[in-house]
Specification:
A 5-stranded mixed sheet has the order 3-2-4-1-5. The chain folds into 2 domains: 2-105, D-Maltodextrin-Binding Protein, domain 2 (3-Layer(aba) Sandwich); 129-178, no CATH class. The protein is of the alpha/beta class. 40% of the residues lie in helices and 12% in strands.
């Protein structure tokens, strides 16, 4: 999701400048800039979009800072960026505090995977939703509890320590499957 603040005004201004310059009606172009901040996941995609767009026009300068979903929402709320990207939809309170409104546009899709490292195991380990929930809530702590043919080894859960949109989405999923 990406929110656009004053987006259409800037797009129309940039379009007007581009058309005017194209017709040679003015001697110099007025540079526009759009700044964004937020989720780290789509940042490589945005870099590519921005690079390709700027190959078409030099009248608009685009900048994106990958600072995390929460940071994107905060910067958009305090109006320090034009685009706020987040893996998480802003809360109703956040949306209501956006004085100039909000337009949410899906810009990227991705997936989340749970990985494991069991040395010496050559077959896939299939984890049901129930088992996954029990591992992350501590109800299952040994691989033997997952499958009797697996080794008698402690499961070491490793998670992202900071806050992020991905962590939020995964935590929300775990809450849904364990309740």
């Amino acid at each position: 999701m990406i929110g656009y603040q004053f987006f259409w005004q800037k797009v129309l201004t940039a379009t007007a400048v581009t058309v005017t310059v194209g017709f040679g009606s003015i001697s110099g172009a007025i540079a526009q800039s759009l700044t964004g901040a937020g989720a780290t996941f789509p940042e490589p995609l945005y870099r590519r979009y921005f690079r390709e767009y700027q190959e078409q026009t030099t009248d608009v300068k685009l900048k994106y800072s990958a600072i995390g979903s929460g940071g994107g929402i905060r910067r958009f709320l305090n109006q320090s960026v034009d685009l706020g990207a987040s893996n998480v939809i802003p809360t109703p309170v956040e949306r209501n505090s956006m004085k100039r409104g909000l337009l949410m546009v899906p810009t990227a899709g991705g997936s989340l995977a749970v990985v494991y490292n069991l040395q010496g195991i050559t077959t896939d380990v299939k984890l049901s939703r129930e088992t996954l929930g029990k591992i992350f809530t501590g109800q299952i702590s040994n691989w033997k509890q997952v499958n009797s043919r697996l080794p008698n080894r402690k499961i070491q859960v490793v998670v992202h320590s900071g806050t992020s949109g991905t962590s939020f989405i995964f935590t929300k999923y775990l809450n849904e499957i364990t309740n």
